[in-house]
Amino acid sequence: MKINAVIFLAIITGCNKVDPNTAIIPKVKTEHLAENENSEEKTIINFNNQIIDVLKNKDYTKLSNYIHPEKGIHFSIYSFVSDNDKSFSKADFEKYVDSDEMFTFGHKDGSGAIYIVSLKDYLKDWAFKKDFSKAKINYDNFEGKGNSLNNIKEKYPNAVTVENYLAGTVEYSYMDWNSLIFIFEKIDGQYYLVSIANNQWTV
Length: 203
What we know:
- By secondary structure, the protein is of the alpha+beta class.
- The chain has helices spanning 2-15, 20-24, 27-56, 90-96, 119-127, 152-155, and strands at 73-76, 86-88, 102-107, 114-118, 136-139, 160-166, 178-187, 190-200.
- The strands form 2 sheets. Strands 2-1-8-7-6-5 form a 6-stranded mixed sheet. A two-stranded antiparallel sheet has the order 3-4.
- Strand 7 and strand 8 form a beta hairpin.
- The protein is globular.
- It starts with a helix and ends with a strand.
């Protein structure tokens, strides 16, 4: 009887052993990481949609709520980001967004003409030059590709981008595509807008 009891206990103990490979990489942790990534993407896409609504409704003062408190906001008229592009601190954005003061935002492709407008006119006539509420949303990816350099990822290596992409038309051989790009960086666990860039086919 004692021998049988020992054998029975040995069998039970062996059946309850945990596979060490399973213990090293629990499935729950992997799923948890994926959930966190999806949650972050949803948060940023939600910010994107809110900013699109702000621009479409020309309610520009509300854009200040999304601007990075330390870095302010940078505007690039194309996807090549330069230190010479126009930037505003959050305070200056709030100061000038409703004013008629003129600023230089860059040079237009082709003509090379200097683009000088007020901040509100830049947002209306350049940043939101198309109805980007109908655009395809590309999270951390760029679909619009032309013959100009896109250095956004190099300039903002720790940022997350959202491209609002409008495809071109048959009439213009699809070369009339346009993109509105929002660039977000995190501070104190919260994402803020650090830059708005446009992109299109250039010559």
